[in-house]
Amino acid sequence: MTSDVDAVQQRVLAEILARNAGTEYLANCGLDAATADRDTFRAKVPVVSYDALQPYIQRIVDGDRSPILSTHPVSEFLTSSGTSAGERKLMPTVEDELQRRQSLYSLLMPVMNRYVSGLEAKGLYFLFVKSETRTPGGLPARPVLTSYYKSDLFRNRTRDPYHNYTSPTAAILCADAFQSMYAQMLCGLCQRHDVLRVGAVFASGLLRAIRFLQLNWDQLAADIEAGALTPRVTDASVREAVAAILRRPDPDLAQFVRDQCRGGDWAGIITRVWPNTKYLDVIVTGAMAQYIPTLKHYSGGLPMACTMYASSECYFGLNLRPLCDPSEVAYTIMPNMGYFEFLPVDSATGAAAASVDAANLVELARVEAGREYELVITTYAGLNRYRVGDVLRVAGFHNAAPQFQFVRRKNVLLSIESDKTDEAELQRAVERAAALLRPHGAAVAEYTSQACTKSIPGHYVIYWELLATGSGAGARPAVDKETLDNCCLEMEEALNTVYRQSRVADGSIGPLEIRVVRPGTFEELMDYAISRGASINQYKAPRCVTFPPIIELLDSRVVSTHFSPALPHWTPTRRSD
């Protein structure tokens, strides 16, 4: 499959066009899909974003069952994460798409077995569903992982190493986040010697689980000691499933949990509680990269495996070197999952064009090493030349199949004037400034930002939640004002030349501000997002916030404010760093 990528891609496009030949959308493009070849498809079908498809999708949402985007009946809608591009998008999908995704899942353990032996034991994975909604037309609308976990493929799965979890299925399927997390953590503690890998979908999800243990270890130990589940878990199916694991009192394990948790030293807690763990299975690319130091702190430096690249629109590919350093993670796109094209990103501006000449798109087999592209997909479910919004860099090739590093989501920006700061640049600036915290036994646990224009000139505001990393972990870190002021300046030094010119020469941007918020603020932020419909599995802390209630929440939790004490370095000539 990876040896003749172009032939596979031509076959996939032919299959997609043949099955969707009778759709309204392709007819409106002037395409006779039954006879069209690739060149005709590229000439006739435009490259589009969600807004162009929204009128078609809305008709399906409202109950129109005619072949609008797909000749196969739409079975459900998959919702975006809720923090991507600021809105929840509805992606129509069809029944056989689940089997296609399952084929990618089936490759995960064979790949991992090449690098780690003895994976037949269990995995402690914190997996969650969100209560689904129904469209006016009666179809379910839910996140892609909720769809998968609720499917017969998952619920009635045969035993295999990848799906051998400590968490009972009933606990995973419980829509109450507290009850689900409590049951999964309790079962993971009871089976602690059976666990060989620990994971969640995103790194932030695993850190949320550790935070849950910090807050609830006393009650968990009490349940283990009594051999009975707390009344706070009321879901009958969860109680029954947990009872099959928590079969009898275990005072020794209860005391062990207390001994590990009550002292406040959380360094290496994962390997102390689950001593046979060989790696963490979490996504730590893109915005999740900021969690790497904290995960290393809690895991004692365990390897972190990023295994799969997927979205609500399509499952794309696998990391064939899953235990590589997080900075080297590259995903091999499987050419049978959909038809993939790539919009070149301007190397000078770092942006893809807003309006696109479809002829400029590059096919999967013709991308160039080192170049950055925006991903464009055509799927069996009826998305045609759809801009996903991910920017990828070609890192190399496996056989003839390109391997891509995830660079960023496009349109995640801070901007006061002509300056534009994207997610990747903001991440680098935070990392550079956070280095000043290490001598003080502190790290940045979470962050977000806003472009504040309430005063003139406007300025960047960065919200930091700090984490104590020394022996006093769990306490509020003590970092002096001068250090935090210097963190502001260090961030500015890491930002682009347009920003620094605006600060130094133009005076059009004010000093960067860091607002330190109290511990637990970003957990409150996630709870707020979930209460508004975000998926606990797919939630990612937004790196830039504009919604007034979120800004009000953050500002109400501020414990100290700090400003850059000087101007950053800037000259008209290009600097070497």
Description:
Helix 10 (177-190) crosses helix 11. This protein starts with a helix and ends in a 14-residue tail after the last strand. The protein contains 20 helices and 22 strands. 46% of the residues are buried. It is 34% helix and 21% strand. The protein has 577 residues and is of the alpha+beta class. It is globular and about 70 Å long.
Low-confidence stretches: 82-87
Mean pLDDT: 89
**Shape estimate:** globular
The strand order across the widest sheet is 9-10-11-16-15-14-12-13
Radius of gyration: 25 Å
Question: What share of residues is helical?
Answer: 25-40%
- Tell me the major beta sheet: 8 strands, antiparallel
What is the distance, rounded to the nearest whole angstrom, between the alpha carbons of the first and last residues?
41 Å
**What portion of residues belong to β-strands?**
15-25%
Number of helices: 20
Secondary-structure class: alpha+beta
Task: Please describe the topology of this protein.
Layout: H1 5-19, H2 24-28, H3 38-44, H4 50-61, E1 74-79, E2 90-94, H5 97-105, H6 108-113, E3 122-126, E4 133-134, E5 140-143, H7 144-149, H8 152-155, H9 169-172, H10 177-190, E6 195-202, H11 203-226, H12 236-243, H13 251-261, H14 269-273, E7 279-283, H15 292-299, E8 304-305, E9 308-310, E10 315-318, E11 331-333, E12 339-344, E13 362-363, E14 372-378, E15 386-398, E16 401-409, E17 413-414, E18 421-422, H16 423-434, E19 442-452, E20 459-468, H17 481-494, H18 497-506, E21 513-517, H19 521-531, H20 548-556, E22 558-563
Compact summary:
The protein has 577 residues and is α+β, with helices and mostly antiparallel strands. The chain contains 20 helices and 22 strands.
